[in-house]
Amino acid sequence: MISRTALLVANFTLLLVLFAGVTNGAEPFQMEEYLKFPPVFLYDDFEDCRRYYTDYVYCVVKAPLEPDESSELWRNISFFSSDYHHYDHGVLERGVCLQKCRDVLIQNGTEGIDSYTQTDLIHQCVSNELTSRYQLRLQPDLHIQYCYSKSTESLSYGMDNDWLDAVFLLLAGTIIFLVIASTVYDLHEQAKQRFPESYFGRNPKLSYQRLLTAFSFPRNLRRLKDPQTTQTRIDLACFESFRCVQTLRVIFLHVSIAHMKLPQRNPEFFEQLQQGAALKTFIAEFQNYVQTFFAIGGMLMAINFLDHIRKHPNFRLAFFGERLLNRLCRLVPTYAFMILLESSVMRHMIDGPFGKQFIGESSDSCHRWWWANLLFINNYIGWGEPCFIPSWYLATDLQLYIFGLAIMMVFWKWPSTRKYIFGAIFVYSIVVPAIVYLTSDITPVMTIDMKDTEKYIRGQMFQSVLYFPFHQNTGVYFCGMLGGLVYHHYRDQRKELFKHGVFRQIAQLSGMLYVFSMVTVAWVVTNLSWLPAACLAVYASTFKISWGLFNTVLLVALALLHRHNWIKMALAHPIFGVLGKLGYSVYLIHFTVIVQVYGREKAPIFSNELIVAGYTAEVMFFSYILGLVLCLMVELPTGAVLKELLEPSSSKPSSNTINSKVHTVTEPNGGPPVTTPGDVTSNDVNRGSVPNETH
């Protein structure tokens, strides 16, 4: 039956692809008419304004055009802007140096300038440009977004005695002191023991010694390259390559979103690019990045839970609280450190004309919504003003972890409920996205509205309704949990699974379903206007679950392959283990790097594929460098300290290696970022499956 279904999906996909080739053509981009439009973005030179005018004032404004149906140019602008693939060319963005504007008006003989307000000056200058060159008029109301001047400059750079700055500097100084002191103590102990082999790979025997060496730099550096020591860790080490690749993709995604937020000298580059089927498919597939982390997270959680109850079969409710506390202790310290950094000293690095647009917005959002982030509810509250673009993933992942852990506790107490609960969750995961689509004004898959780019595309209902909420991601997470159950059942007889006909048929069906989704999505997005709502609702559910199901099948198959299989060995290369351990810190810090890189720009930029790739490479480089520092100085040390303080001595492994003490689960992200398969032990599940941002 499943084989027939897979064949039907394959045939239908082929027919739809052939049909799409006929109907998927986009209207040609009329560049000749396009070039007659006023530039959407036009900025005076910011550095010249600051250099030549002592008391400079530089403002960024939104200037809406006055509708004029008698003007052919206005009609073309209005029609062109109605397409969500295009910027709103009816609202112009201008960067205006007020002193230069005043000088131009004086030269043109404009009278009464001394009585003009800032808004009047800007309106007059922009209006003169439009009237003389395009015979268009501005609406009377302008929206001044940001202004820069000597006073704001001194505020940005000055260290005003703000308590947040003081707290961060005190905390950073304390961490540096602890790292130095702990390193000196550890090196002294090493010399005292006459430099034994693998000294940093073994934990001290006494608790106080483990605390004193928790911040030791060489010891934490050694933790990054811990070898895999258990069969489960060896089996699941190949997951790190999945996480690493998806982390890089999340960073690229977030760089692309930030790049579109920056004013463009050639906005037609993105507008034309959006018309192509390749980019529509690429955008729709964004959601699959975090689906990978959710699937890995569910699988790890189930495996570690089953390992625990195999060793401790007696039901114990307190286990739920212990696992949740352990997880929070691993997530919160580094997360809180980054929120404090972003909301304090980062705001002193604002420099115009885009500093407030990037660095300022991020800092203000962290300052306003820090509590929602630390309560891990920012996927429901404050999601439109992100402290970090990928922080919603951390909230969703933790909520899924809590829900999944609660379900596993129910299985532990009442094993007979397993098939009923999994069945109910499967039906829920299929039906709910379809119902939500039918009752909401959203698209069935992710798209990008170019008019929403200044908000990091957070203005689209799809994200808040189908993408961010934990209750819309339970299907993928429970696919991962089911994969964990399958792995746990077959790991001692792993060849049997590959002989199982049902597994092969599910693999074929899930693969065809994923291929069907990817091949058809561009055609579906292009033809949303006439496709029946019921069909689109079914498609929304199918697309959402397709990669999660197929990815889980791949993960289970890889986990159960022989350890010497060449594919598994390549995917489990030690470099992926190191990059995986850095994943959580990189995931947290890469958005800070992005806003610093783009916030330091001084003018609208010219964009093409190579330029976007260059920005991506720069962000990735600094994200991993700074992520390494964050991991070695904050994440790993605080994890070691909290583990030593909170975990009962009776529950600590008897092994005297670092592996037995600290297991880092790298994230998403992009998330994503909290679930790191490289270190799969009972402790790893507590960090989750962090995306990298997710993206």
UniProtKB/TrEMBL annotation:
Return any one Pfam family short name.
Acyl_transf_3
The source's domain of life comes to Eukaryota
Q: Name any one GO molecular function.
A: acyltransferase activity, transferring groups other than amino-acyl groups
Q: Show which residues constitute the signal peptide.
A: 1-25
- In what residue span(s) does the Acyltransferase domain sit? 239-625
Is Transmembrane helix among the key words of this record? yes
- Protein name (record): Acyltransferase 3 domain-containing protein
